[in-house]
Amino acid sequence: MLFIGGLATASAGLMTLGLGMDTPWAPWEGEDTVMFPAVWFTLASFLATLAACAAGVVLHTMIGLVTSQADRWWWGCGTVFLFLYGVYSLGSGTPEAALMLNVLHVIVGVPALILLPQSINNHRLPLVSPLR
Questions:
Q1: Does residue 130 lie within any of the structural domains?
Q2: Three-state SS for 108?
Q3: Which 8-state DSSP code applies to residue 31?
Q4: For residue 22, is it left (φ>0), alpha (ψ between -120 and 50) or beta?
Q5: Residue 131 forms part of a structural domain
Q6: Residue 76 and residue 127: Cα distance in Å, rounded?
Q7: Positive or negative torsion for Cα 27, 95, 31, 35
Q8: How far apart are alpha carbons 51 and 104 in whole angstroms?
Q9: Which of 3, 121, 129 is nearest to 70 (CA)?
Q10: How many domains does the chain have?
Q11: Cα dihedral sign for 27, 40, 60, 102?
Q12: Does 90 fall in a domain?
């Protein structure tokens, strides 16, 4: 999760601070003209990625309780999410901000789809029934 968070932070910093790309609208402002400050957006990208990865671990674990094909469902759900969020982010302010968000989500989403199931499956403890 820290590796993926680092990818998010480095990517957001490069695109917003390095290349000067637009950030999305600031969610706390009522006006649609105030953009998220680039430094805060970069830091928020790290925290949001950690939260999303932690939620992903919980989701993958819950899927694993229901089906034996948790990885397949994880990849399917993640792919649908990336597509739907990509369409949703088109309304995030400017076309440049939408492009930046889509690139950032692919940079974070693809490693999360690949690395999180491997990490979960390698560290999964066997379920032991207390009734045995």
A1: no
A2: helix
A3: S
A4: beta
A5: no
A6: 25
A7: positive
A8: 15
A9: 121
A10: 1
A11: positive
A12: yes
Q: pLDDT tens for residues 65-120?
A: 898 888 899 999 999 999 998 898 888 778 888 888 899 999 999 999 988 888 87
Where is 114: in which H helix or E strand?
A: helix 95-122
Task: Determine what percent of the chain falls in helix, strand and coil, rounding each to the nearest 5.
Answer: 75, 0, 25
- 41 CB burial (10 A radius; 0-12, 13-18, 19+): buried
Q: Left (φ > 0), alpha (ψ -120 to 50) or beta: where does 127 sit?
A: beta
Tell me, yes or no, whether 127 lies in a domain.
Answer: no
Tokens of 103: 């690139």
This prediction has a pTM of: 0.76
Token reading at 71: 């990885």
Contacts of 25 (CB under 8 A, 6+ apart): 32, 34, 35, 36, 92, 93, 97
Q: What residues make up the domain containing 50? A: 2-121
